[in-house]
Design goal:
mainly beta, 4-stranded antiparallel beta sheet, 0% helix
Length: 75
């Protein structure tokens, strides 16, 4: 099995959209979360090509900077 990568919140905000599911294959650079912070939406991109091992948040959840949102296992 490959290396595990934590996807972390870059800032405080709220999850507006989750664009991946547990067990789903995802390509590096693909948008995986939409985060709203201070009235601005930003997309969080997959750091590596891999498979989603876990999702720690869902739509509507509040995040804090550095919080783990998901874990992706690199292929």
């Amino acid at each position: 099995m490959g290396l595990r990568f934590d996807v972390v919140a870059p800032r405080d905000g709220s999850i507006e959209r989750v664009m991946l599911r547990k067990g789903e294959k995802i390509e590096e650079g693909t948008p995986i979360f939409s985060l709203q912070s201070n009235g601005v939406n930003c997309e969080i991109l997959a750091p590596v090509t891999g498979v989603t091992e876990s999702l720690e948040v869902e739509q509507g959840d509040i995040t804090i900077s550095g919080m783990i949102l998901a874990v992706i296992v690199q292929l």
